[in-house]
Write a structure and sequence with these properties.
Number of helices: 27
Helix content: 40-55%
Distance between the termini: 64 Å
Oligomer: single chain
Structural class: alpha+beta
Strand content: 15-25%
Largest sheet: 6 strands, mixed
Length: 845
């Protein structure tokens, strides 16, 4: 096994080997006529003078570099670079390509634009071209910069501004020696190089631009550096294990880089490892309404931390780093590891120890399934089969849930804990554990210790977001006795403490150092001062500290009716997006890894800015011109490709619109879509019922349906208020756009108060809108011809002259073809009436 220091240096060499490309494109005077390798070497020599592999790797990772063929370490880096670049399309096709040129100003093609329409079977229609420009706006770096449909150029001046900002932050992390910290360095590289193309070869097509765009650079420099670091570690471990003493005795040129190693029948140096946490939904949702919001957030975030914990245990055991991780979130993780005997042995041991801890704490509700499949270099050009094999292995393993604990599960039922003879946990209902007293809304509630910990975790997340400038989580290797027990939670053999950090710096416990400091959703590298600092993205949006933060208060203080809602949303046809929707020849490891990273970035990081209406993000939706204010909702979970929100019904509805809009901007591919379901209920209703209702609503949105004589395809849709399903956009039938248009015709007759609407004294009464709702419902439910009744209702209603223009517009709209059966008008009326209701009443859905 490679010594840790050597593996660490090898990883850094992979992450930095092409950094010279970044600086070269800034066209600085001291780099004139130098290759990117030489530029990188000179810069790295200043900052890593003792690390020969890092500095020499920058100028010796091409086949034309003589030093490559003299050292196995450099050959591994060279081959890892080839593995990472296996997606590149550099060959001129004389039938389709007119020419190709190297252009440093070429922008990065949006990776989502490689996805053909996944709603087709097979997918055929290509997406329109889209491009990422450099994230520099008015001299500052922006984290939200969606792709643009117009191709622009990355000028040398833009690169120079970006490079200067990079150097400034690099110097900040170097001052505390964190330029040697792989996690911090990767975070810095992601911030500055994820919109830079890894190569700048530009093709001109003979017949159409689509053929030329097919070969446009679409892998960022960051994704290339990250995968190169991962493959370097795996290849070194594999060849050192295979060739033993020969590694240090001779140059293994053919063994490491020979053509035979790329054949379809060559040996497999890599393992694709997958983890699937089963029982997530039951674990999160099976709680009562008591302390629901903090318990939900705590349980959900516990799962996030557990996945991070599991991944860290694997990386530590295998001497790997975060560059080996492809994806974590949504109860899953994937990573690439070396295919050597000790890898499988360690994975088996870790799976057993992690599941033992889960069983002890949660009595079989949660179980982690670990599977892995070997793959070879040739598979990097099309990884579809590898992913399918791993998915099949995980599905097979999940059919044997509980197998390792059959004796415990089949033993005689245990007596209830003495604490539970006349009571039980008021959150999850368990009766086999001692009960603790937890104060929820000024009432002492009996809870089991795991539920107490989940509630405490949710409470700590709220408190830290209220107190500090930025949030961190300390991970302690042993129990931190210097802290109150309510300040941390245990996950297996580590202890996690969410806290806030201000200008005074990091807190300290005598004689105890954390083995990780997670910085939550923080791109400011100046905050990463601890030697164990590292980033962690998570959907953690909460209203500001002076706004309601529990479900009852959200319902009471929100605009309109005092109800809460749950939203469940996920990406449509994700499996097809990662397989057949990618054209043959483009289903490479690098492309699928880049896609995974972008999906995760949206659902784990950008979701917070979207909900907060943060700077640079799209403006928040405010239906009916209601007063602006913070979104009264909480992210229960958001990661991978799906999310779960809970909060005031109107904020949930508007958030659904905002997320869908932002997602379309983020992907710039109209065929990559989301579907969602929204359920509405009382703040006192058990969360699992609302979650189940939202799940059924989402299933309805994903299902095809008939509307009169029309067949409406499933997906690309949302179910509002439990039962009203519309596609986001559909020119052939009522859609969400139609609902919003109908609402705009109704709002002029309202007066907007601070917390609800009321009918204008110059317009129709509230009764008019209720009668109008009855008529449109009658039309939908019974197919009754209600046009005469509609005409009578409008005819006997009078409005003040100042609203006459709006009144005529509403009548024309209702009696025109745009009304189209009035299904969308019914939804708009419901929203309007709920915005008018403020007192606690029965739901009139």
């Amino acid at each position: 096994m490679v010594a840790h220091d050597k593996a660490h240096t090898r990883c850094l060499a992979g992450l930095l080997h092409d950094l010279g490309k970044f600086k070269q494109r800034a066209e600085l005077q001291d780099d004139y006529q130098l290759t990117h390798g030489e530029i990188g070497y000179r810069w790295l020599q200043k900052h890593y003078p003792e690390a020969t592999l890092i500095t020499e790797g920058a100028r010796n990772h091409h086949s034309t570099d003589e030093l490559v063929w003299q050292h196995n370490d450099l050959m591994v880096l060279y081959e890892a670079d080839n593995c990472s670049a296996s997606e590149r399309r550099t060959t001129l096709d004389k039938g389709k390509d007119a020419s190709s040129t190297w252009q440093r100003s070429v922008p990065l093609a949006c990776v989502f634009s490689r996805v053909r329409n996944p709603h087709e079977d097979p997918p055929k229609t290509p997406a329109p071209p889209a491009y990422w420009t450099l994230p520099v706006q008015n001299g500052r770096i922006t984290s939200w910069h969606p792709p643009e449909t117009e191709e622009k150029h990355n000028s040398a001046a833009m690169y120079a501004d970006l490079w200067k900002a990079f150097e400034d932050e690099f110097q900040a992390i170097k001052e505390c020696q964190n330029h040697m910290n792989v996690d911090v360095l990767m975070h810095l590289l992601e911030k500055y190089t994820s919109a830079i193309p890894s190569m700048t070869l530009r093709f001109q097509g003979k017949n159409n631009n689509q053929e030329a765009y097919r070969k446009h650079p679409d892998i960022s420099l960051f994704d290339h550096l990250k995968t190169t670091g991962a493959f370097s570690l795996c290849l070194a471990d594999y060849y050192m294990e295979k060739y033993g003493d020969d590694w240090n005795k001779r140059v293994l040129k053919e063994e490491i880089t020979g053509e035979a190693t790329w054949r379809s029948d060559a040996e497999c140096p890599f393992l694709l490892v997958g983890g699937d946490l089963s029982g997530v939904q039951r674990f999160i949702y099976t709680i009562s309404s008591k302390g629901a919001l903090k318990s939900l957030k705590g349980r959900s975030f516990f799962l996030e931390l557990f996945l991070e914990h599991a991944v860290d245990k694997i990386l530590e055991a295998l001497n790997l780093f975060r560059c080996n991780v492809i994806f974590t979130g949504g109860g899953h993780f994937y990573l690439v590891a070396p295919n050597v005997p000790r890898t499988e042995k360690k994975l088996l041991e870790l799976g057993q120890s992690l599941n033992k801890s889960l069983f002890q704490d949660f009595n079989g509700t949660l179980e982690l399934f670990l599977c892995w499949v070997p793959f070879r270099k040739a598979n990097l050009r099309d990884v579809t089969g590898v992913w399918q094999e791993l998915s099949g292995a995980l599905e097979t393993a999940k059919k044997r849930k509980g197998e390792a604990f059959l004796q415990e599960l089949l033993s005689e039922p245990k007596e209830p804990n003495p604490d539970c003879y006349v009571d039980k946990c008021e959150v999850c209902g368990r009766e086999d554990l001692p009960l603790k007293r937890l104060t929820i809304r000024d009432a002492a509630v009996p809870v089991c210790e795991p539920c107490r910990d989940q509630y405490i975790l949710g409470d700590l997340l709220q408190k830290t977001s209220r107190r500090g400038e930025h949030q961190v989580i300390y991970r302690w290797p042993t129990e931190p006795w210097g802290l109150k027990r309510d300040d941390y939670v245990r996950i297996e053999d580590r202890y996690y403490q969410p806290t806030a950090v201000n200008s005074n710096g990091l807190p300290h416990i005598k004689d105890l150092e954390p083995d990780a400091v997670f910085h939550l959703n923080d791109w400011n590298l100046a905050h990463y001062t601890h030697s164990k600092s590292r980033p962690l993205f998570a959907g953690l949006y909460l209203p500001p500290h002076d706004a309601p933060r529990d479900l009852q208060s959200m319902a009471e203080k929100g605009f309109g009716m005092q109800r809460i809602a749950v939203l469940r949303m996920d990406v449509d046809r994700l499996g097809r997006i990662f397989s057949t929707a990618l054209p043959e020849g483009e289903r490479t490891f690098s492309l699928t890894a880049a896609l995974s990273r972008q999906f995760s970035l949206f659902f784990k990081y950008h979701i917070n800015g979207i909900l907060a209406g943060a700077e640079d993000y799209p403006a928040k939706t405010l239906l009916g011109k209601r007063p602006d204010g913070p979104r009264l909702l909480s992210v229960v979970y958001s990661g991978g490709d799906d999310l779960f929100l809970i909060g005031h019904w109107l904020d949930i509805l508007e958030a659904a619109l905002d997320i869908q809009h932002a997602f379309q901007l983020f992907t710039s591919n109209p065929n990559i879509t989301v579907s969602a379901g929204m359920s509405v209920g009382s703040a006192h209703e058990p969360v699992y019922r609302l979650a189940d209702a939202a799940g059924r609503a989402e299933d309805t949105a994903k299902s095809g349906r008939r509307l009169g004589s029309k067949e409406i395809p499933g997906r690309q849709a949302v179910t509002l208020l439990d039962t009203h399903t519309f596609r986001w956009k559909d020119q052939g039938s009522p859609d969400v756009v139609s609902v919003l248009q109908a609402l705009k015709h109704l709002v002029p007759f309202m007066e907007i108060g601070p917390d609800h609407m009321r009918p204008s004294p110059h317009g129709p009464s509230k009764g008019f809108f209720y009668r109008l709702l009855q008529l449109v419902r009658l039309q939908r439910r019974q197919g009754a011809w209600t046009l005469p009744k509609m005409a009578y209702l409008f005819g006997r209603t009078r409005v003040d002259g100042r609203l006459e223009k709006d009144w005529i517009a509403l009548k024309n709209y209702m009696f025109s073809s745009r009304a189209d059966g009035w299904r969308h008008v019914e939804a708009a009326l419901l929203i309007l009436l709920m915005m008018m209701r403020k007192e606690e009443t029965k739901d009139e859905r």
